[in-house]
């Protein structure tokens, strides 16, 4: 609770958003560009962001892999007249949950301490990886609700 | 049903789907009721269950095609659409497997439509992999539900054929009772099924064709890939496999997101730019401050005198820090008599810089920061060594002195550098007073050093302008005294047990000056082959194959230079004594002023680093043939000229900003030629050249494919004009990390040359590079179809 915080606390406000676009060089598979946005030059180390993007790319690659599990899922779905979709979630959905957890972890450990926030690409239709940049707006008095910024809320 | 706005729920939109549902369910029900009993009795009892299963399959697919989200993309928020829509380009090109695909701006959804995405006017939303809007299911058919639609068509076709066939059999067996209810109903059923079988069969056949070609209805109708260059096709069987068996992509619009609250609270961490080095320099500053305290009075006097030194003549722009580092590294290499083969092919300087550092260190895959740290440690280690071996090997010591130089090459704060420089000067001047011999010996070199230092500080704009003032003392003696340690650094250190801090301050400027001095000092004695200027023309003026010859000759020269680099300080000292200080000044300044000379110093450094690679290249020349070498050198030679201009620009980004990913930072690659070649040109050249050469056979798509791939790729490197290349670069280079050198160079040379696409395709097949051959093979499949 904010009223437990010290009287003087710094506020963070959203300054801008950086969008890492999709990398379509290999078709419509889900990949994000690993190019480092210049707006983040002084905000985060390149290696960290690159690592995040590459990990996300690996996750998506795993989700979209056409292999044994996807065969089985398809056959099962056909055999059950797709009723199975009501009962269990697909592998893609499972990987998406993993991705969501990974992004949450990255935000908590790496990005939020640097005034950044990643938004799950699924919320943007997997078109962009949105990074919100926050800036320290200096200290505020006793305003209770201005000290924190939340993210990843449902739209 | 599509998830669209309320106003689109027109009753008329439901008529086709209701009709389709009624016809399908009704007809089939009547078939089961009136026809199947006789079939089960007369022909086979398994017919009704099979038909039922089939009908169930049809219904399931129909339901999925009707109610499943096709892959509707959510409308972009306002944050994404930052540009004024009037100024935003309507189309954005993106490179998909070597083919330029246009992404159109969607005014309704406020984003550039991804490839294969289209805006459905009925649903008023952009749909991923948009096929068409089917009125019979009243839904968009897109990425997520295309397989259900396709399976619905297939199963419906089969079902209709089955119903028609069995109904016909029944009617033919009941010709005498044609007007009975069962027969009449069956007649109606077979007439409906027969009537709708023809369009359904046509549609099924059409979609079978689309799937085999890897196209959507939208693409077929709009004629996007009529030339046969479809980057989205994977081959007929693979397309079918992907259609049926690929995982279902997620629903974007109706997802329940977990509310993850993350607190973003200042103060924020910030990345340390050159984190290690500033610390070191601050340490230096602390130590230097201590020294300054001790020698403050004398130091201040020295400083004031130094300030009066005349401004050095306009020197060429300060070489980039990385260049200095590389030069120092090269010097270090030479000083230690290391003739390591340093594979430098086509220098795009920003890319080469860190590699040169690593290479000069002995081709260890150490990132520059670690290299600098290592050099820092070496410098610290060598400090006492230098002190202990005062006179042993001036040149060697000099070179060794350059080792600690590398550490502070990274940018330091203005104040710290100023402190260091001034303190170094003061301390060195103090030392000079005690060793006049060294002072006189090294005066000329020191002048050069100081002038170079001044020039660097002034031109770099790194905030060392006051260093100019520091160097400005007009008193030659002071200049000599001050400059001496710059050249015979070790001597002072050895004589006076200078601390590592003293060694550190000016080496970044020291090294190139030393290079210049090295080049210049033997001139009175060896005026012929040691002149560095031939190396520069050798680089710039030689032609295609002569370029390599020139490089080879430079290689020899550089070898001799390398050998002679060892004694230069001694030579320099002797030169100084023999020629006199003023003469040396005159000798050195004009040469310093000459742009090519100082540039030649840099280029000589390159030559050092290149010589080993030239040797290797020689071998490869014999293998690949002069022909390819000429072609390659021609292609490379062009960008080289421009590239050598780069060091003079101040726009070169410092090392720390260089994205590691863009250089393919896999450890084994640093010291390898393959890495350099792939980094410099091959990374992009490989990307474009094989595919471009294959695409030239059918249809050239991108602007890069028309010109020489290397030049285009090098220009892309410089201009960064290709939006997809940065993205494509890293994975490409990762793939290229392991390949052998033998595969790399021949591949490049063959693709550089305008060989027929078929040949290049064969080359691609031979190549060990995974992606390039992969992309090439998959791509021509569409071409050749």
UniProtKB/TrEMBL annotation, chain A:
Ranges where the record places region Disordered: 136-155
GO BP terms in the entry: protein targeting to membrane
UniProt KW keywords: Membrane
Compartment(s) where it occurs, according to its Swiss-Prot or TrEMBL record: Golgi apparatus membrane
Record-annotated membrane-spanning stretches: none
Membrane among keywords: yes
Cellular component GO terms held in the UniProt record: Golgi membrane; palmitoyltransferase complex
Similarity annotation: Belongs to the ERF4 family.
Protein name in UniProt: Golgin A7 family member B
Species this chain originates from: Cyprinodon variegatus
TrEMBL record, chain B:
Keywords of this entry: Acyltransferase, Golgi apparatus, Lipoprotein, Membrane, Mitochondrion, Palmitate, Transferase, Transmembrane, Transmembrane helix
Primary enzyme class: transferase
Compartment(s) of residence: Golgi apparatus membrane; Mitochondrion membrane
EC number: 2.3.1.225
Compositionally biased residues, Low complexity: 521-537, 688-725, 738-764
Membrane-topology annotation of the record: Multi-pass membrane protein
Catalytic activity field: L-cysteinyl-[protein] + hexadecanoyl-CoA = S-hexadecanoyl-L-cysteinyl-[protein] + CoA
Pfam families named in the record: DHHC
Main location: Golgi
Stretches with biased composition (Polar residues): 453-463
Notes concerning its domains: The DHHC domain is required for palmitoyltransferase activity.
Protein name: Palmitoyltransferase
Family membership noted in the UniProt record: Belongs to the DHHC palmitoyltransferase family. ERF2/ZDHHC9 subfamily.
Transmembrane segments: 12-32, 38-59, 148-172, 184-210
InterPro entries: Palmitoyltrfase_DHHC
Region of interest: Disordered: 293-322, 375-401, 453-473, 498-544, 646-673, 687-785
Top-rank taxon, per record: Eukaryota
GO cellular component annotations of the record: Golgi membrane; mitochondrial membrane
Species per Swiss-Prot/TrEMBL record: Cyprinodon variegatus
GO function term, MF aspect, one: protein-cysteine S-palmitoyltransferase activity
Span of domain Palmitoyltransferase DHHC: 102-222
């Amino acid at each position: 609770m904010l009223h437990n915080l010290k009287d003087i606390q710094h506020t963070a406000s959203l300054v801008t958003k950086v969008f890492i676009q999709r990398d379509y060089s290999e078709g419509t598979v889900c990949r994000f560009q690993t190019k480092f946005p210049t707006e983040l030059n002084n905000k985060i180390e390149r290696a960290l962001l690159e690592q995040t993007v590459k990990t996300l790319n690996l996750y998506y690659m795993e989700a979209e892999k056409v292999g044994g599990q996807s065969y089985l899922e398809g056959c099962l779905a056909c055999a059950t007249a797709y009723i199975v979709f009501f009962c269990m979630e697909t592998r893609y959905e499972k990987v998406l949950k993993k991705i969501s957890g990974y992004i949450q972890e990255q935000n908590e450990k790496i990005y939020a301490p640097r005034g950044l926030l990643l938004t799950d690409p699924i919320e943007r239709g997997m078109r962009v990886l949105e990074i919100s940049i926050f800036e320290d707006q200096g200290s505020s008095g006793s305003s209770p609700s201005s000290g924190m910024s939340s993210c990843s809320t449902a739209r | 049903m599509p998830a669209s706005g309320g106003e689109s729920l027109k009753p008329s939109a439901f008529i086709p789907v209701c009709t389709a549902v009624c016809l399908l369910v009704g007809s089939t029900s009547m078939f089961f009721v009136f026809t199947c009993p006789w079939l089960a009795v007369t022909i086979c009892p398994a017919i009704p269950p099979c038909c039922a299963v089939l009908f169930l399959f049809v219904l399931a697919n129909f339901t999925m095609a009707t109610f499943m989200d096709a892959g509707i993309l959510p409308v972009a928020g306002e944050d994404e659409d930052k540009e004024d829509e009037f100024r935003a380009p309507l189309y954005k090109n993106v490179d998909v497997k070597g083919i330029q695909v246009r992404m159109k701006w969607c005014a309704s959804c406020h984003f550039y439509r991804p490839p294969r995405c289209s805006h459905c006017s009925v649903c008023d939303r952009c749909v991923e992999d948009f096929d068409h809007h089917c009125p019979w299911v009243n839904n968009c058919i897109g990425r997520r539900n295309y397989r259900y639609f396709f399976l619905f068509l297939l199963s419906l076709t089969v079902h209709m054929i089955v119903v028609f066939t069995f109904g016909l059999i029944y009617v033919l067996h009941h010709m005498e009772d044609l007007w009975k209810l069962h027969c009449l109903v069956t007649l109606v059923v077979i007439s409906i099924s027969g009537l709708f079988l023809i369009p359904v069969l046509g549609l099924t056949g059409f979609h079978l064709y689309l799937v085999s070609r890897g196209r959507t209805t939208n693409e077929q109708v709009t004629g996007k890939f009529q030339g046969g260059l479809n980057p989205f096709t994977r081959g007929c069987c693979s397309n079918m496999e992907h259609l049926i068996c690929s995982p279902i992509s997620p629903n974007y619009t109706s997802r329940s997101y977990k509310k993850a609250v993350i607190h973003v609270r200042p103060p924020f961490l910030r990345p340390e730019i050159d984190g290690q080095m500033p610390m070191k320099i601050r340490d230096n500053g602390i130590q230097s401050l201590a020294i300054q305290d001790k020698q403050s009075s004398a130091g201040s006097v020295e400083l004031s005198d130094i300030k009066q030194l005349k401004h050095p003549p306009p020197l060429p722009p300060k070489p980039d820090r990385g260049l200095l580092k590389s030069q120092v590294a090269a010097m270090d290499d030479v000083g230690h008599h290391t003739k390591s083969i340093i594979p430098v092919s086509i220098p795009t300087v920003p890319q080469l810089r860190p590699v040169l550092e690593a290479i000069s260190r002995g081709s260890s895959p150490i990132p520059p920061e670690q290299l600098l740290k290592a050099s820092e440690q070496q410098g610290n280690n060598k400090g006492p060594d230098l002190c202990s071996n005062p006179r042993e090997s001036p040149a060697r010591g000099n070179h060794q002195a350059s080792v600690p130089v590398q550490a502070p090459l990274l940018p330091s704060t203005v104040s710290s550098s100023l402190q260091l420089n001034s303190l170094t000067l003061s301390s060195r001047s103090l030392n000079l007073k005690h060793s006049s011999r060294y002072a006189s010996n090294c005066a000329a070199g020191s002048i050069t050093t100081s002038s170079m230092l001044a020039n660097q500080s002034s031109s770099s704009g790194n905030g060392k302008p006051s260093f100019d003032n520091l160097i400005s003392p007009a008193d030659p003696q002071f200049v000599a005294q001050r400059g001496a340690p710059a050249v015979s650094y070790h001597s002072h250190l050895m004589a006076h047990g200078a601390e590592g801090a003293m060694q550190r301050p000016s080496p970044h400027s020291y090294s190139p000056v030393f290079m210049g001095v090295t080049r210049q000092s033997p001139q009175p004695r060896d005026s012929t082959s040691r002149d560095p200027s031939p190396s520069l023309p050798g680089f710039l003026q030689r032609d295609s194959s002569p370029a390599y010859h020139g490089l080879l000759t430079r290689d020899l020269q550089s070898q001799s230079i390398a050998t002679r680099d060892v004694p230069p300080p001694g030579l320099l000292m002797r030169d100084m004594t023999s020629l006199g200080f003023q003469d040396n000044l005159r000798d050195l300044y004009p040469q310093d002023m000459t742009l090519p000379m100082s540039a030649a110093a840099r280029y000589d450094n390159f030559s050092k680093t290149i010589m080993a690679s030239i040797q290797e290249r020689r071998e490869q020349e014999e293998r690949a043939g002069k022909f390819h070498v000429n072609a390659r050198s021609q292609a490379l030679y062009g960008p080289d000229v421009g590239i050598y201009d780069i060091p003079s620009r101040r726009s070169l980004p410092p090392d720390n900003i260089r994205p590691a990913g863009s250089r393919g930072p896999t450890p084994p690659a640093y010291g390898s030629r393959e890495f350099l070649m792939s980094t410099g040109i091959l990374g992009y050249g490989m990307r474009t050249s094989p595919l471009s050469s294959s695409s030239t056979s059918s249809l050239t798509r991108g602007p890069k494919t028309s010109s020489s791939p290397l030049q285009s790729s090098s220009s892309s490197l410089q201009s960064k004009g290709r939006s997809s290349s940065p993205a494509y670069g890293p994975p490409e280079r990762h793939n290229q990390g392991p390949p052998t050198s033998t595969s790399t160079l021949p591949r490049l040379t063959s693709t550089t040359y305008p060989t027929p696409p078929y040949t290049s395709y064969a080359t691609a097949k031979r190549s060990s590079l995974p992606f390039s051959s992969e992309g090439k093979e998959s791509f021509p499949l569409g071409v050749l179809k």
